[in-house]
Amino acid sequence: MEEKIELEKLEDVDVTFGEHAFAPESMFCDKCDLEMKKTSKYMTVSEDVKVNLDTFKCPKCKEEMIGLDEARKLDRALVINRLLQKNLFTFKRRLSFDGDNYIFRLPSELAKGKHKEVEILPLESNEALIRW
Ligand SMILES: [Zn+2]
After folding, report:
1. Domain that holds residue 114
2. Which of 21, 35, 37, 77 could join 51 in a cystine, given CB atoms 3.0 to 4.6 angstroms apart?
3. Within a domain: residue 25?
């Protein structure tokens, strides 16, 4: 019984990405070779995070696809959802200012001393995910 509930939940994110398209105007179903219908889908990632996606749906087999732009949007929603989880490990660093830039220090025990750069994924104007 429990497994069934899990499957229903997963069905919400059962979408395939269009291979060559960022924001496609139309898409065709791989299986049926029919033009897919443009539609939008309000997807609930969690109680706090919901995302509206432009999707394409096959009128015959009901297969759904999204373009890369929408895939990014979904990706972002998943990241934000993770950040909102209450027991996520976070830490604060003090910002210093050199006249042009704000600088913060990454503790060496985290970076293990071998990293030369960090990757910053902006989420909002004042929020970002930092990866090293
Ligand atoms: Zn189809």
Report:
1. 96-131
2. 77
3. yes
